[in-house]
Every structure is written in structure tokens, then in C-alpha cells.
Write a structure and sequence with these properties.
Residues 10-405 form the Peptidase S9A N-terminal domain. Residues 411-431 are annotated as: Disordered. This is Prolyl oligopeptidase family serine peptidase. Residues 516-715 form the Peptidase S9 prolyl oligopeptidase catalytic domain. This protein has 720 residues and is α+β, with helices and mostly antiparallel strands. Among the domains are: 27-58 and 451-714, Alpha/Beta hydrolase fold, catalytic domain (Rossmann fold, 3-Layer(aba) Sandwich); 327-441, no CATH class. 20% of the residues lie in helices and 31% in strands. The protein is built from 15 helices and 39 strands. The strands form nine sheets. It has an eight-stranded mixed beta sheet with strand order 32-33-35-34-36-37-38-39, with helices on both faces. Strands 5, 6, 7, 8 and 9 form a five-stranded antiparallel beta sheet that branches. A four-stranded antiparallel beta sheet has the order 1-2-3-4. Helix 10 links the parallel strand 36 and strand 37. Helix 2 (48-61) runs antiparallel to helix 7 (500-507). The longest helix has 19 residues, at 696-714. The radius of gyration is 26 Å and the shape is globular.
Length: 720
Amino acid sequence: MATTSTASARPQTEPADEFLWLEEIHGEQPMEWVREQNRHTDTLLDGPDLEYMTERVLDVMDSPSRIPAVTKHGPYYYNFWRDAQHPRGLWRRTTWESWLSDDPEWDVLLDIDHLARTESVEWVFSGAHLLRPQYTDGQWRRALVRLSPDGGDAVRTREFDLETREFVTGGFDVPTAKSSVSWMDADTVFVATDTGPGSMTESSYPRQVRRVSRGQEVRDAPVIFEVPVNHAQAAVYKDHTPGFERVIAVDLVDFFTVRTHVRSGEQWVELDLDPTVSVDLHKQWLLMRPRHTLELNGTQYPAGCLLAADVAAFMRGDHSVQPVFTPDAHTSLEGWSWTRDHLILNTLHDVSSALYSAVPGAWELTALPGIPPLHSASAWAVDNEDPEVGNDYFFSVTGFLTPSSLGRGSLPDLSGHGADADDDAAAAREASEPTILKRAPSFFDAQGLEVTQHFAVSADGTKVPYFRVGPRELELDGLNPTLLSGYGGFEVSRTPGYSGATGISWLTRRDDRGRTGVYVVANIRGGGEYGPSWHTAALKENRHRAYEDFAAVAEDLHRRGVCTAPKLACAGGSNGGLLVGNMLTTYPELFGAISCGVPLLDMRRYTKLSAGASWIAEYGDPDQPEQWEYIRTFSPYHLLSEVMSYPPTLIWTATSDDRVGPVQARKMAAKMIDQGHQNIWFHEATDGGHAGAADNRQAAALHARSHQFMWQMLSGRKGR
């Protein structure tokens, strides 16, 4: 459980924070400091090279040849699309037959640019939740549309009519806040939002859920579920699956601990299960993925496995389970999806994808074909409730040098089979390779480039995989401009993926020697590449392992002759910003440039800033003296030294980031400048939220600025 304590527990000898004034996010003095730093950074980077690169990256992001990814609801396929003519985007839909064509006919439901002009708010589309047709005479007619005024996590949720293409007059409308809103039925929604004092957790998320009837003010609606203020968040939603309708409440105790409750009459019944086990309720099945070794009925099941049980029996106390997936030293489970008659598993084998299907009850895994090595693939159900295509699945594959493709396949219809699980399993083996329907274009010339996988040895002897993308005939003389990227947190895996922007701004760019860039992705501990154990190995007091892993990859690149320190840059955002912040302060001799985005850096105060308290389970609680003793060892803000020599560093953030917030980036840059370091630059966008960009042009500018900085520094231009 996440815990908090009073500030009096802190060591009294700790020096005062001279830059607390920068924590006033919209204050006049802090914003003037931001504007001054932005001007300074613009002076360094602005010019024909940056402008050219920004426009080329924007061409990629705005390309009409991108694959329009869709989700199916009823007869229509929905898509959200941004391009040069619609920078804020279009929410639209089409038919399957039209989508298959080279030029689909799109029915525009909501033009966000037009809405922004009409309402004088720079809206950013954050998704929509459609009401099931059983509540509206069989028609998909209503949706709850989420709109952010600045790209942050706080959104306004409004009821929208899909037939009239208008917001419903007098309909559900929840004001801008960090909130969740979901349908119970046509005239009732579950709302978790800020309703005043006592309604939010210390993590800045809702702690109360109310059942709101049409026409009722949220504040007047009854609270049906709430969690303690030091938990992370509360939410309630309804499973609308016909024949299996149920209302579910979740108490997110911390980032990795969730207590799941099912409504029974007027009572909540909690699942009798270790709350660190991830659960999924689907029809009669309960799926469980434990983060740690789990013992049930005297049998131990390893972390990262997948178990299945009958929901009703489990809630009656029968904890009999069937293993669905068991990991080994090389494999992990990334996720799953249900078709009508099958379960699809997305797995990794040494960070390359492998896909499987299984028939519920038999649970025998059958490989889905069509995945090349050193690539990433995923498969998911098209619409598991559609009577005609309930066993269809979408399939995507991508690689560092392979543009994304999207296909569609179908698993066998088992509705005509009996209850014999062996017959069902045999039928499942009839699955055929899906048909590729659309391919994204190539945005850079990959001829002569290759992808290889290597393993570095970390400080404790652990082998850490990494991907290297670069010339096939790479000269191993240490002179190749190299960009090392990583994340290492929250069980997030870094898998192969095509980026036209990175191809243009790094892989095909040439330096004065005619060398093109080398791009490296490190799969360090803290991520999920090898399942929960790979993540938990770098939690809290073991956080140093993630940084040792990343440093080991950097050293391996040096040892192999790919680059030397002056030719190696590293980049990371959010938790990845904390990662490269620790490279800056602890391993500065390994790098020639660092790009640190929307970062955590002040680990003393991170729990007091934005949503920081929700991450105590990842990093620890700095208000507990014994935990602060290890946290301070990876708090870059506190590791800074006036006498150290640091590589050129760009620290960038966004004023509207309400997840990590901009203040840690501000304070880090200000402290380094105050200490006299001459190679520190800072840039803060005014909107865009935690992504740092609210539209494609802002995203292109952010990408180009970061890469231009690193390329420029590796080419030898330094100094403030």
C-alpha cells in the first residue's frame, strides 16, 4: 500500500530548496523564467536545419498514406485522424467495404478544429465511450466524448449524439477534471471526478464514484464506491456483455495493487485474491496474471503466468484454476484479447513477438503465423459480440526498418462444436495466416541498414538485451553518431517499431564524415520485456539496477567500437527522463549529449507534485527516512555537483503536463545554470500535456528539436 507521513520525518540537516519558487506553475516570475530559457534555447537551435527537419518530420506525421487504424462498433469502423488540414483532428467512421478501398468515404462525426474555433477552446480529443445498442433500440447512437482543453490528463466529458452529430442539449456533461465517466445505461452514468474537498486522492485522482442519473447534478448523486485518500484512484464500470452483465468497482491502491469488487444486490463483493494479481472478467471466465509467485490450493504458480478459473465458482470459494500460459527465462506475456470463441495471447520471446490462440476450457496454445524475427506484432479481436465476425481479429506487425502493416484473420467458429474441449482445440489449429490489408509507406531509405540484437552484461552479471539499428557495413572505429534510448519502469516493454521520424532525423542523416546515425534501444530492467520479475528487479531500493543496465549498454557500444562517449547521446521521457537524468549525474563520462523530456528529477518532492504520489510503489516514499536514504541515490536534482563536468543537456517539458508536471524539469535546469554549468538548455511548451504536443506540428517540432540538439552536440558545438 502507498503510504505517506508528515514532513517532520525528514532529516533536519537537509539544505533548503532554493528553487521552490519555480513550482508555481503559472506564476508570473516562473513563466518569465521559462520564456527567457525558451528564447535562449531557440537561439541555439533555430535555423534552416531545424526548420527543414521539422517540416520533414511533420510530412511523416501528416502523411495521408498512414494506416487509418479503426475500432468496430456495430456496422461502422471508427477512427481518429490528424493531418495538415485538420491539426486537431477528425473523429469519423466508415464501413468495412469503404475502409478496404484506397480512398475510403469517411462520415465525420466531430471536427475538433471546428469545435475549438466555435467554442474558443483549444480542445484535444481524448477518446469516446459508446453506449451499447441494447439501451437505444438496437442503434449505436450515444457516446461520452472526452476533451482536454490543453492536452493534459484533465478532461471534460460530454454526451454526444452520433445521428445528429451534436452534443446533447442538457445531456451528461462533467466539467474538466481528472475523471472517469462510463455508461450504466441510457440514462445513468458512473462518474468519478473532483467534486470538492475530500473527493480526490493524494495522487490527484478521484477517490469517490457516484451514480448519476440524467438531469442530476454530479454533486447531488449518491456515492456508491470510495477508497481511502492515500490510495491512488477509484473507478466503477459496467460489463455490458449480453448474458453476463455485471458492475465492477476497482480500488487502485497503488500502481500495482488493485482490489476488484463485483456488485451483488446493494453490496460489493471483493474477489478473494492477492490484489497484486491482475484480473480480467470475461463471460464466465476469470483470468489472473500474478506479479509474484502465487499459491492457490497448495500449488505455486510463477509470476507472469496466466491462469483461468470459473468466475462464479471462484467467488463461491472454489479456487481451482487452469494454467493458460507459463513463462520461462526467455518469454513473457504482454497481453491478451478475447474473440467470441477464442483467447489470443500476445507474448515476447527475447523481446521479439510471438502470438497464440487458445480455446477456453482446453487452453492449448496454437501459434499464429506471419511474424518475422526481431519484429513486434500484436493481435486483437475485431468485435467479439458480432454474430458474423465474432472470431475475426486484427493483426499488426512492425519493425525498426519495416513500416507497419495491418491485417485481418479469422479463427474457427466453434459454435457448432460440442462441449468436448479436445474437439475445440483441434478446430483451433485450423487457423490460417491473416491477410495483410494495408501497409504504411516507407518514409526513409532503409537500403543498407540492418537490425541486430546484442546483450550487454550489467554490474551484477545480468545479461541485458538491446537492439542496434544502423548501417550493415558499420565501421567499428567509435566515430558513429549514436542515439541510445530506454525507459526501464512500470513494466513497460520497449519493442521494435517503425518510426519514419527517427529514420529521417537520425538513421539517414549524415555528419561531416558522411556517417549516418546509429539508433539503439535498451531493454533494461524495470521494464516488462521478461515479465513482472524483470520489472520488480529494479523497484525501489533496487532502482540502481535499471541505471546500471543502461550504463552497461552504453559501455558495450563503446567496447564494440560503435561509438565513443563524445559520439553517444541518450534520450528518455517521463520515467525515461529520470533514467537519463541519472545518466547525467552518475554516468556523465559515457555520453556526449542528453535529451531529458517531461522528467521526474526531484525525487524528494515528486510525491507532492502532480500525480507523483501514485508512483510510490515504483520508487518508494521519500517521506519515510529509511526509504529516502536509497531514493536520494537516484534523485538527479540532489546528485548535482558544482565541480562535476556534465555533457550538453536539453531538458524539455510542457506547462500543461498535469501528470509529472513541468516544475521538476524547471528546477533541474535552474539549479545547473546557477551552479555555473555552461552546457544546459531548457525548453517548455505551453500546452500538449505529458506528451508535450497537442497536434502533429507541435509533435514534429518537439521531435526535431530534441534530435537536432543531440546531433548538433555530437558534431562538436557546445557551450552556453
